[in-house]
Amino acid sequence: MGKLKQTLAQNGLSLFVSLPANDVRLAKAALEEGADALKVHFNVGHRASGNQFGPLGSYADVFGQIRAAFDGPFGVVPSGSLEGVAEEDIRQLGPLGFDFYSIYAHHLPPFMLEDHGLDRTFAINESYDLSQVQAGAQFGITALEASIVPGSEYGTGLSLADLLKYRYLADYSGLPVLVPSQRKLVAGDVPSLQRAGVKAIMLGAVVTGKTEDELRRAVSAFRGAIDRLS
Q1: How many CB atoms lie within 10 A of CB 84?
Q2: What is the gyration radius of the CA atoms in the chain, in angstroms?
Q3: If you average pLDDT over residues 113-125, what whole number do you get?
């Protein structure tokens, strides 16, 4: 069983951090404050952080240092487009120490569904028919990232409408649901996200900011809120 699948199966609610930059210092800060898993990026422009991430080769050393810092699930977004996914990059992910990838379903080519030794997750956006995700398990998918907030609404507060969609996905997708912090989530939202059936909260730049101090405060607050659920 892969590290991602194992973590999602064992934990009631996990705390993931999607790093705003491929930075060892930020990764170690997130881990010290209680992150269960980390996610990084390459070959993609990231709307929430405003960062443009370059090719895989430019981060090999950084990714190696992050992997050496912890033994938990380590994931990566390998492209921001279908055409940008290179098969040779995907073959390198396992040897570089990655455990899973995360990519929009409409950016995921069929060769990525082959066994590369990685847990597979896919994301959906606000344009998807939510019922489509029910077939994901048939393609060996480990988890679903519910990136369903329109870009124009990034940074706004969580609502019941969001929670209803997350609950629907948790009930009917047949997959563990990961919720990225497209909304300006706060620690007080954690009990409601748990009631929505979410298996992991993935803190990104909207909540963590871009500095080490901001990231530490955010991760610590959510770690505390999750720990108080048990």
Answers
A1: 14
A2: 16
A3: 94
